[in-house]
Amino acid sequence: MSDATSSAGRTPSARDAILAAVRRALRRDGALDVSIAAALDARLAAHATHLKPAVGDDLVDRLVRKLEAVHVSVSRVDNAADVVQAVGEHLAAHGLPQRMVVADDPVLAEVDWPRNWAVERRPACRDDRVAVTGVFAAVAEAGTLALVSSGDTPTSLNFLPDDHIAVVGRGQIVRHLEDLWARLRERLPGLPRAVNLVTGPSKTADVEQTMQYGAHGPRRLHVILLEER
Amino acid sequence: MRSAAREFRARAREALGNASLQTALDRAGGGFADKRREAVAELPEFERLRAQAKEIKEHTLAHLDFYLERYESQVVASGGHVHWASTAEEACRIVVDICRNAGASRITKGKSMVGEEVALNEALERAGMEVVETDLGEYIIQLAHEPPSHIIAPAVHKTRSQITELFHEHHRRFGLHGRATDVAAIVDEARTVLRQAFVSADVGITGANFLVAETGSTVLVTNEGNGDLTASLPRVHIVTAGIEKVVPTLEDLSVFLRLLGRSATGQEMSAYTTLFTGPRRAGDSEGPEEYHVLLLDHGRSTMLGNEFHDMLRCIRCGACLNHCPVYGSIGGHAYGWVYPGPMGSVLTPLMVGLGEAVDLPQACTMNGRCGEVCPMSIPLPSLLRRLRMRAFEQNLVGMRSRWGLSAWAFAARRPWLYRTVARSGSWLLRTLGRRRGALRRLPLAGGWTRTRDLPVPEGPTFLTQWQRR
Q: Which residues contact residue A171 at a Cβ distance below 8 angstroms, ignoring those fewer than 6 apart?
């Protein structure tokens, strides 16, 4: 990008006019008083939480219950070796081919895919039928999967294929959204380009308020809960 | 979009007589309201969250310049660009320029009320670009060349058979000649057609539900996933957002997310909530190379300093529409502009001018439900009343209303006169309607009696009953 389209240079007059109008409306002459600005900086840095809804003690049970309530199917396996079987069962149940795009996720690194399955590691294309991914975390509160974009975990896997199969390790389950934010700050400071919070498969009620799954994104979302990780 | 709010009365009358609209409104009916009630009942913390959300938003608005500047610097730090627009024209010019510089000819759009506000599609089409709306409801009304009739369900006024015919007419050019009649087939056909638009677009434009100052993130909430495909597949992602959308931190955001889905559709969380922060990173194998955010004022800074300040807390959930008997009877198009229902009856006069939309604040029964269900505790009935007062002060109301109000005010300041008039009026009505308990016609009350009977008063006046207590 040239300087002319850089953020401060683009339309300085509109920027200044809007900020001046905001300050006028707030009955202030110029920028904030230094001490107030310092207090606001401190507020931003504190990450103070507000009221968090009660979630109960059994996070695994809560997560599974909430996932199922939003039309997500769940299977539970003991270790990575069992993931193939769980994936195979989902493919068979929905008549899907043994052909899939897979994220380069640590949780999937130990999976030994059958030789006769076509498994590719790349971003998804428009006609891919099945994607298998890990997750960054799963939030028990409302049954939400958190996935982050990276070279190894492209966002398109979460949206283009008809079926999205996500492997969730037990240790990846957190209680509230706030616990997810804390984990993101700790492990991915500066945030990746996209953080997808996924709560169920794609759906629409735009035709006569009738719920229909598979609007643009996945028609089905299947979670494989891995006990040992 | 040009406002047709001046024609409210005619449009409302037409809507009441439009059979297919009435069918669609009946079908949509109480669905949203029931789902919201169930979702709220399941969250005992709802009322306290509501109070906290108001507090957070008020804190943010009180330091809006600080949080906007912080948001801007964080977007820049993540490799993005921020643009500012005071007016709709400026906003359109900036977005058209970004698209031109990117050499764009095809554009996909996620649903954006700010986009509707500034009439972005028309501006892009005038510049020779092809624009495809990707939210199913928005896509349907784009094909029908209509504005949205609901802020979260833009095609709620369309019946299934109307959609079948629209698709049949417009999808022939894609080689689709059949008629999709059931909901699954309609959604599948849209999926097929729009999939092509997603993968071939040069620029994707989305709105924003929230902007997070701490991280410079745009937060986008959808159920279809169309916003994510719009934002992630093209070379350029442009976000259009009002300046009131900013919240300080991710922790603050959590409170709003817990209220938004429940208030809008009765969902704990919508299917997709995405935080977009900047363009693709080194090492990413996909994602836009350019990321732009357009911040729009368009009357918002004026509201910040006047008696309509509360309206800036609005998170566009649509709960007030879903609980409004007037909206439920006439639908969204009668309101004549982008925002319908109670929130629209406040916003439209403030954004396009009270003189252009003087009937909207009058189209309210003052039943108060909108204010009761608003997750941001916006006192919508009071704001509508203030607009009525403004209209009276600015001489924008008709002579009959002025005289009527003046006569009422004269009597109301003289209790003996008021009581006498009320008592004798009540007696007169009772005597006239003695036989049927109702009147078919009454001078000066034609607006009421043209379509229904006027019930006569039963028993003594309110003041008499009050004195007896």
A: A229
